[in-house]
Amino acid sequence: MDINNKVLWIFDIFGVEVWITQTIFNTWITILLLIVLAVLIRVTMGGWKRVPSGLQGVAELLVEKFDNIVRNAAGEKFMSLGNWFFAAFAFILASNIVGIFGLRPPTADWATTFAFAAATFIMIQGMGIKHRKGKYLKSFFKPNVIFFPLNLIGELARPVSLSFRLFGNVLAGMILTSLIYSAPYYLRVLLPAAMHAYFDLFSGVIQTYIFCVLSLTFIGGAAEET
Amino acid sequence: MDRIFGLDQQMFISVAFQLLNACILAAALTFILYKPVRKFLKKRADEIQSRINQAENDMARASELMAFYEKKLADIEEERLKVLEAAHVQSSEKSRRMLLEAELEMAAQKEHAFAEIKAERERTGEEMRHHIIDVASAMAEKFVARAIDEATRDRLFDETMAALEDTL
Fold this sequence. Notes:
The complex is a heterodimer of chains A (226) and B (168). With 226 residues, chain A is mainly alpha-helical. Chain A has helices at residues 22-44, 54-73, 82-97, 110-132, 134-138, 148-181, 191-223; strands at residues 7-13, 16-21. Chain B contains 2 helices and no strands. The longest helix of chain B has 137 residues, at 9-145. Chain B is rod-shaped and about 200 Å long. The interface between A and B is large, with 49 and 34 residues.
């Protein structure tokens, strides 16, 4: 099993070479799967009852639980960010899990994790300025102006740490699982299943949760007075 | 070109691609699933809240009605007691009046009976007197016939009368 991110196609757009990598292609597959699943759930919505059961129960549980995560981690005023984090949660979770089906997880590429971390960074700054206005910008110069470089580095380190945490965990899981696939046949009987269960499912869910909750906590923290 | 990690132009192009993909996914999931489900949940929560409010209003109205009817029952009970008391007073008065009337009538009848007895007694006495006079006359006639004097006759008459009065 090759752990490298393969370049599938190369395009030339306005003189710039653009690589369509395995990550991007697998991201499209993951997005397509999620959209198909969402459409399937949506189609059943016409027959939804007051007392949920089956698929309706799962969909309601997911949305409600996710709303609660946003409410608890960031606060009531950030409920408008729920849809973004709902999508991020679904995508990161699905990306972590697709490894079970032999696809290279899109989150095993730093480009994917950094894209979501960059979105979080933009939201942190946006919400900080929106809710605290000038005070937020002044907070970079506290307790003293000489701390500005440190505060700035601390702020910039957030998306980097967020993205590398997720990327590192998923990549490590993928590499370890790949190693097992390259091991002698007697090690390839039950061990790969256990590795997938741990790294793709267990660690995948935990890392997704950590990414989303940390992002929401950072956003909530930026918008609050310290 | 295959690689695990590299900080170059292609990496940032990939980041831009992934951001775009993420935005497309977020828009699609929001439109297809997240908002409709939240709308459904909100509608159901509103409906349940509305039912709770309706039930509370019904309960308040029922309590008001209960208080109203309890008061009405209390009024009716009070009215019943008043009517009963009035009827009792009225019946007592009527019975007292009837009793008085009966007593008066009884007294009148008694008086009338005494008067009738007295009149009958007098009438009987008079009849007896006349009868005695007749008997006495007949006796006198017979006595005269045997030559009894007048003084003896009167004495005999008075003795006879006294004996008659004692027997009455």
